[in-house]
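TA notes, week 10

Several of you asked for a full example with nothing omitted. So below is the full record: structure tokens for the whole chain, then the designed sequence directly under it. When grading your own attempts, check the secondary structure regions first.
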């Protein structure tokens, strides 16, 4: 099935047909084609998906940018691993509480936005994302699992504001490991001032 055929099939499941765009911003819905008529960017925010992700989406092998915010999504299927070109996923404001193990095979994923979901612990699979630079887990109920974040080889920006963290493994940080770490609005019990040389920008 061609990318255009996938988009047509996907559009039939949405309240309104998807439009081709020149570029996608954070408020637009639609898709972007490259010179070979392959879909590289797709935004289906607020499309009332009723908790699931349509199968047609996983056929878009050249997809680099996916915005699927505010759709009541309860689970990401294992088939997400088929989107091997993905560099950016925004799945904020859904109903996720865990991630599939196949997420770890997205070797190009650089930015992952999971804010405003139902996570209570940091998914261990995050440590397997070889290219991940930014992770947003803000506005969840995370209270544990932060150690695995420090095992992600290229993760430099972490947003954990407004969670339930009482501690963070500051002692495991290496000098200069992080560019930005945001922990504001957590009930933290302890903090070591020596962390300042390990994080360029620390917000507590």
């Amino acid at each position: 099935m061609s990318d255009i055929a996938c988009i047509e099939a996907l559009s039939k499941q949405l309240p309104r047909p998807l439009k081709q765009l020149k570029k996608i911003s954070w408020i637009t819905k639609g898709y972007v084609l490259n010179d070979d008529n392959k879909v590289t960017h797709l935004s289906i925010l607020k499309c009332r998906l009723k908790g699931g992700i349509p199968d047609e989406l996983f056929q878009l092998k050249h997809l680099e940018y996916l915005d699927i915010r505010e759709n009541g999504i309860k689970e990401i299927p294992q088939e997400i691993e088929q989107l091997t070109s993905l560099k950016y996923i925004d799945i904020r404001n859904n109903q996720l509480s865990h991630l599939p193990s196949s997420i770890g095979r997205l070797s190009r994923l650089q930015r992952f936005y999971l804010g405003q979901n139902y996570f209570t612990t940091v998914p261990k699979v995050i440590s397997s994302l070889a290219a991940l630079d930014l992770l947003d887990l803000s506005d969840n109920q995370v209270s544990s699992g932060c150690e695995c974040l420090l095992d992600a080889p290229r993760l430099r920006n972490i947003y954990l504001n407004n969670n339930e963290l009482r501690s963070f493994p500051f002692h495991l940080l290496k000098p200069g490991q992080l560019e930005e770490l945001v922990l504001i609005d957590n009930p933290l019990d302890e903090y070591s001032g020596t962390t300042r040389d390990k994080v360029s920008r620390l917000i507590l």
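The mean pLDDT is 92. Use that as a sanity check on your answer.
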